[in-house]
Design goal:
Porin, 14-stranded antiparallel barrel, 47% strand, mainly beta, 6 helices
């Protein structure tokens, strides 16, 4: 049976446009989310951190960022302005593993928190978007990278199990409550939870199980077998071409983050701390110093309910010689593509609704004070999901990191060294200056134009500056108690 498709031509340019044309964010505010001075920004990182926090009050103004990564296609920043940029400018990794790509965007809206030595409360608002591409076999990835013009892979039988593409965007309002359950005798223990109300903005998925295929040219493919599930939320609609329109819909969901924090606070460190001259300012409170801290968080346990859109089905594919050069997947109409599946046996219309899972993850970290103001942090951020799941979910990017940081109340710097599931080792950097924090997990991607880049990220957080400006210091540079200004601030 012949069908007219140019799917992979369009898919090729679509995916690479996503992966390499977007400016970049960082996962979990690496280097800052676990800081003593993260405040309300650390609520999602670990809700328990709001109890006995360094801030009695902390106000978030805004924040944003984007992160993208893949384990196959690299580029050099120096070649991006090449008007003839194409497959010849791509650097393909030869590691024989399944290929994947990850994209995430977060927008942090205003939030606020309050804390004392027993409790912590907070409210924050976010808009989050995720795109996952998983389970692409090296042969299919290679064919796609060369725009189907890949003669060495023609007339060969290939298989691809658990191939998936998933997308979801949503808004969330989180309310955090944290409580100290043990303090004194050098030991501190707190727990916290961040239940959240979710509003789905849109979702889509494609999942192919046990796909078997054979390319005989750049325009013809034999699909031997395959079980295909695809769907999208009903607030996405298509016009006569491939133009997409979006409308707001009520797609509710619920989720929760839960965490626990243990700190070891030696008595001799507290005695040393009490000898310091300290004058608190609005929003800041003096808290005991820890020698080390151990924390764990279960993040994004929850689901969102969407309604299926018009092009949502489940089909068993068994076709021969699909012609990729006609107009089924070009600008004609999605309906034409959809009709090609309806002509085949083994199809079943999907239900009226779908449950999309949040990017469930486990975050475990160990923070150690080397000497005054100098820390080293080890974090294991692990995405929890089944790779053989049928696609109705998005997931995080697993990353292991070690982050030295030097921080005071006014400012901080850090430099994380991380290894992600994409098989990429990266050196990051970040700083906090008063109310502004900025960071990235791979500073070398920006520093060297000829470095092969397989991902990029950048994030920032801006808060209300609750610092002692004016009232804490006199014109002569002295505090009211006669100490130097630096003694008050640091």
């Amino acid at each position: 049976m012949k069908t007219r498709i140019s799917l992979l031509h369009h898919l090729h340019f679509f995916l690479f446009a996503i992966l390499f044309s977007v400016s970049s964010q960082a996962q979990d505010l690496l280097g800052y989310g676990h800081s003593t001075y993260a405040g309300i920004a650390g609520a999602a990182y670990n809700p328990a951190s709001l109890a006995d926090n360094a801030f009695s009050m902390d106000i978030m103004l805004c924040g944003a960022g984007v992160e993208l990564s893949n384990n196959y296609v690299g580029i050099k920043r120096s070649e991006l302005r090449n008007q003839n940029f194409g497959s010849g400018n791509l650097y393909l990794r030869t590691i024989k593993t399944k290929k994947a790509a990850f994209f995430r965007n977060e927008i942090l809206l205003p939030g606020i928190m309050f804390s004392n030595d027993k409790f912590g409360w907070g409210v924050d608002i976010k808009v989050r978007s995720y795109l996952n591409i998983d389970g692409v076999q090296p042969e299919l990835a290679h064919i796609a990278a060369f725009e189907l013009n890949d003669p060495p892979n023609y007339f060969q039988d290939f298989e691809n199990k658990d191939l998936g593409v998933s997308f979801m965007s949503w808004g969330e309002i989180g309310g955090t409550y944290a409580k100290v359950i043990r303090t004194g005798a050098e030991h501190f223990l707190a727990v916290g939870a961040r239940p959240k109300f979710l509003l789905g903005l849109g979702a889509a998925y494609v999942y192919a199980d046990d796909l078997a295929y054979n390319f005989s040219s750049d325009s013809t493919v034999t699909v031997v077998r395959g079980d295909l599930k695809f769907g999208h939320s009903d607030n996405f609609t298509f016009n006569g071409g491939f133009g997409v329109s979006w409308k707001m819909g009520f797609n509710p969901g619920v989720g929760i983050d839960a965490g626990i924090v243990y700190e070891f606070r030696p008595d001799d460190m507290q005695d040393h701390d009490k000898d310091k001259k300290f004058h608190k300012w609005p929003g800041y409170r003096e808290r005991p110093v820890y020698k080390y801290r151990i924390a764990a968080t279960l993040m994004d346990l929850g689901v969102i309910r969407f309604k299926h859109g018009e092009f949502s089905d489940h089909y068993t594919i068994d076709a021969q010689l699909w012609d990729l050069d006609d107009n089924t997947f070009d600008t004609t109409s999605p309906a034409a593509m959809y009709n090609t599946f309806e002509l085949r046996q083994g199809g079943s219309k999907q239900g009226k609704g779908m449950w999309m899972r949040l990017p469930l993850a486990l975050n475990v970290q160990y923070d150690y004070l080397i000497r005054e103001n100098l820390y080293v942090n080890a974090t294991a951020f692990t995405a929890l999901y089944l790779r053989s799941y049928d696609g109705k979910r998005v997931h995080e990017l697993t990353r292991l990191s070690i982050t030295p940081r030097w921080e005071k109340r006014w400012y901080a710097v850090w430099a994380p060294v991380s290894f992600s599931r994409m098989g990429i080792v990266a050196l990051g950097a970040g700083f906090r200056l008063g109310p502004l924090a900025v960071g990235t997990t791979d500073i070398l991607a920006y520093a060297f134009r000829n470095k092969k880049v397989y991902g990029a990220d950048l994030w920032f957080v801006l808060k209300v500056p609750l610092f002692p400006i004016g009232k804490a210091a006199t014109k002569k540079g002295k505090t009211k108690s006669g100490g130097k200004v630096d003694e008050c601030a640091d």
